[in-house]
Structures are given as C-alpha cells and as structure tokens.
Specification:
Layout (H helix, E strand, L loop, with lengths): L6 E3 L15 E5 L20 E11 L4 E8 L9 E3 L6 E8 L3 H7 L5 E5 L5 E9 L4 E4 L5 E4 L4 E4 L9 E8 L4 E11 L2 E11 L6 E12 L5 E10 L25 E2 L7 E5 L2 E5 L4 E3 L3 E6 L4 E4 L1 E7 L26 E7 L7 E8 L5 E9 L7 E8 L3 E13 L2 E12 L5 E7 L7 E6 L5 E2 L4 E7 L3 E12 L9
Parallel strand pairs: 1-11, 2-16, 14-25, 17-21, 23-30
Antiparallel strand pairs: 2-3, 3-13, 4-12, 5-13, 6-12, 7-8, 7-11, 8-9, 9-10, 14-15, 15-21, 15-22, 16-19, 16-20, 18-19, 23-24, 24-27, 25-26, 28-29, 29-34, 30-33, 31-34, 32-33
Keywords: Signal
Protein name: DUF4139 domain-containing protein
Organism: Luteibacter pinisoli
C-alpha cells in the first residue's frame, strides 16, 4: 500500500486544552545511565523513569463508549496506567495501549478527529471522523455511514496543532451521565530522567577554594513533547522491580534535539523529603521538548572551601594464612604506581548524585577542564570526594632497601622517592599497607606518620618544586607457630 509519510495540518491543537489548575505534573527520578543524556538519533530511550499525572477532558455520551487518548509517551508502562473519572458513575471496562510506531502510530493518535483522506494523485478520497487507523482505515461521516479506505497518500487534519508521535490508549467506558468530564490519567514511563550537574571552578593560587554551581540536568527522550508542565525531581535510590523496555527507533521524523540550555525558572526548586528520598519541586512550569536536555538551577552559586590531595598508595594488603617470607613478592607493577589526585569539600546541603566538572582558569583567562568526577548522593555536612586523575608532574619510585627473614620475624626496609617537576612545592600523601603478615610494627621512618591503623600507615611528605624527597621506613613482622593456619 502506497502511503507518503506526510500529514497535512491546517490549524491548531493536538491534546485537550487544560485549565490552569489542570496542568500536567511530572515526577522525575534520578537516572544513572549516560545513554539517556546522549542525543544519538534514537527517538525513544529505555532508560530513565518518571510518573506522569495529567488530566484529560472528554465529552461523554452516557452508557458504553469508546475513547481514544493520543500523544502518550512511546515507552510508558501500560500495566501501571490508570484512568479515573470523578464520581462513581463512569467506570473503565477495558483499555488497550497501541504503541507508537511511525506513521501508523501517528494516525492512531488521530482517532476521534475529523480528517480528510487524500489519494496518491492529490484527489479527495473520503472525509469524516477517524474511527480506526492503519490498514484499512475507517471513517464515519455525519450520517453515521462508515467508509473504509485502503490506499491513500496523506491525511489532511483540521483542529490540531501537531501530530502525536507517541502511543495511543483506547478505552471503553460504561455508565455515567452525558456531558463534559475531566479524568485523571496517571502512568510511569521511561525516557525521562534527571541527575545533578555541577561545575566547580577553582580559584588560582596554592590554596583551595572554588565557585560552585549546582544544576539539575533533565533529559526527555520519551517520544513526546512536554509543554508548560509542573516538575518535581526525586533524588535518592528508588528501587524498581521491572527492567527497562527495549529501545525502539521511531520511523516518523521528530524535531531535531534541542540544545542543552537553562530553563527560564526565576527561582530555585523547593527541597523536601519523600520517605527516604529527597524531592525538588520547581516553582515555575517548564517545557521539555522531545529529544532535549534541559538544565535548571538546584541552588544559588556560592564559594566553597575545598582541599586537594595528591596520593601514592600501594593498594596491597595481606590476605592469607601464613607470612610471605620471599624477598621479592612482585606485588607492584614494573612501571610503578602513579600519584593520583582528588578534591574534597563539605556539602552545604543535600547534593543529588551526578557529575562534577572541575575547571581552572588558564593564563589566557579561559576556564579549562581539569577533570570530571562522579558525585554520589551526599547528605548535608558530609564530605564529597572527587577523584581527579593522575598528576602529570608527580612521580613515585619504590625500592626495597633491606630484608632479613628469621623463623618468627621479618624485617624489611623500603624507600619511596617522590619527585615533583612542577613550579610549586607539593605535599604527597603516602599510604602504605604492610602486606607480608597481619601483625607488624613500624621500626623507623624518616617522616613521622600522620596516621597508623592495623592495616595502614599514612605519611604526609612535602616535595619541593623541581626536586625530590625520599621517604625511608622499616617494618617488622612477627608471629608464632600457633598463629599460622593450614597451608
């Protein structure tokens, strides 16, 4: 059957018009998947989770009646969809969800609208109320007569503003009286989600302070535009039993993804608690076009104190039931372990999980990316720690300086040479995990340890610019025959 993928639109509305107090409300949950935030051509994403609360207006005839609700997201959960009419008169007998699939999905969304069917040569084939889309197409004229159309090129539609690209819900209702009625429609859907998007711009100098911007990054790849909606963002880990649906590509062309931008909300969201979760309710309605990523502020920008740390850690700990008496244990890679860097700051309020881009102004005045780190859900006054990567100018070289083994004792000396090729002095935190046996003691060290536990030693070592510093220490391991487990 020949059908050109064109719907000629003469003038205005796709969805029922709502009064101001009937605005659609979206509750968006945190999305951990990067795929949802990538506009890679898929019109619908299986990631993300949202609950939609909207109202639909109907002209009820009384008795048994079939209704069609178009413009629904293409990835909604049909098993959790509910439609409720006010009062006790009208009840839902059955409901069927038609998944949006290209041209046929768009036509299904026009059921109940007045359409004119155009043939391949541009001639008018039929006119009336669309009763059934697809093949064949069924229309009902003013006299009640049905017309069945099998081959056509286009539909000309009056009274619509845009064609729904999502799914269509067909509902049979029974009972109630005739007249206008507004029903409550609630359903969860994938393709919508949000996460924290933070920018930390470090101040120049050897200290550590930063300008901190906290935003919500909101992705919509649900297969539907959302206009002038009330928005609530839920932070935390809300468990879900169902797996996400498989992604589908939509044949009907959608608008190009909108560029990431800031919403026009004039004030920050209102924070609150929801059980063990955290919510942020936007004070101003927003638009979320399909295939877009929108940002809106969570908190006002502020300056925060921070702490940067360069760390060298062996990562090796003792696991076993007998001491390791071999001189060379080969626990460390031949090219050494890099010196990693991190940044720590205290959360001024609850910070939902997301990504933090750490920036620093270069000599030309442009702020450049130092690192991007993952921030987990962080409660107020907790420390947020970001891993920034390996330090380019800092190096560590490890060598064994002495080793003796006796029947119940091992003495081992170690030197760690720390070098700094940068223009300013640096403090490197060395974390040593004695790994030959679980009972050990520090015999001597060239730098006094700042922390000592049953598993780890920690040293703060200052390394001058364009120079090096040696950290020498000796560890003694002791045991008895009774402490040795079976080999």
């Amino acid at each position: 059957m020949r059908r050109t993928l064109v719907l000629a639109i003469a003038c205005a509305v796709a969805l029922p018009a709502f009064a101001a107090d009937e605005r659609t409300a979206l509750t968006l949950y945190r999305a951990d998947s990067d795929q949802l935030f990538q506009t890679d051509g898929d019109a619908v994403s299986p990631d993300g989770y949202a609950v939609v609360h909207e109202r639909r207006a109907f002209d009820l005839k009384g008795g048994t009646q079939d209704l069609s609700i178009g413009g629904l997201p293409a990835a909604l959960d049909s098993e959790a969809l509910t439609l409720r009419f006010p009062g006790k008169g009208t009840r839902v007998v059955s409901q069927r969800l038609l998944l949006g699939q290209g041209f046929d999905g768009a036509v299904a969304g026009l059921v109940g609208q007045t359409v004119q069917v155009v043939g391949p040569g541009g001639q008018d084939l039929a006119w009336g109320t669309l009763v059934q889309g697809g093949n064949p197409m069924v229309l009902r004229d003013k006299t009640g007569a049905l017309t069945i159309v099998r081959e056509y090129a286009a539909l000309r539609v009056t009274g619509v503003d845009t064609v729904a690209r999502g799914s269509t819900l067909q509902v049979r209702v029974d009972g109630g009286s005739a007249g206008n009625s507004t029903a409550q429609l609630d359903y969860p859907t994938s393709g919508l989600g949000w996460r924290g998007a933070y920018v930390a711009t470090l101040a120049a100098g050897n200290g550590c302070s930063m300008a901190f911007d906290a935003n919500a990054s909101i992705a919509n790849r649900s297969g539907r535009d959302w206009k002038d909606v009330s928005l609530k963002l839920v932070a935390g880990d809300a468990r879900r039993a169902k797996s996400a649906p498989a992604p589908r590509r939509m044949a009907l062309a959608a608008p190009a993804p909108a560029a990431m931008g800031f919403s026009e909300a004039s004030s920050n969201p209102t924070p609150a608690t929801l059980g063990d979760l955290r919510t942020y309710t936007l004070r101003t309605p927003v638009d979320l076009p399909d295939g877009s990523v929108t940002q809106t502020p969570l908190y006002d920008s502020r300056t925060l104190a921070c702490e940067r740390e360069a760390t060298y850690e062996t990562g090796a700990r003792f696991y076993g039931n007998a001491p390791n008496v071999e001189r060379n244990m080969n626990l460390f890679p031949p090219d050494g372990i890099p010196v990693s860097t991190s940044m720590k700051f205290k959360a001024f309020d609850s910070l939902p999980a997301g990504y933090v881009r750490v920036m620093l102004a270069d000599r030309d005045g442009n702020a450049e990316l130092l690192a991007e780190g993952r921030l987990n859900d962080t409660a107020k006054n907790e420390d947020a720690i970001l891993q920034l990567g390996n330090a380019f100018d800092l190096r560590a070289k490890r060598e064994q300086t002495s080793f003796t083994a006796a029947p119940h004792q091992i003495d081992e000396g170690t030197r760690i040479t720390l070098t700094n090729a940068g223009d300013s002095s640096r403090v490197i935190t060395v974390r040593e995990n004695p790994s030959r046996w679980r009972v050990w003691s520090l015999v001597s060290s060239s730098v006094k340890p700042t922390k000592s536990t049953s598993e780890q030693l920690e040293f703060k070592v200052e390394v001058p610019a364009h120079g090096s510093t040696n950290l020498d220490f000796a560890v003694r391991y002791t045991w008895t025959d009774a402490e040795i487990g079976p080999r």
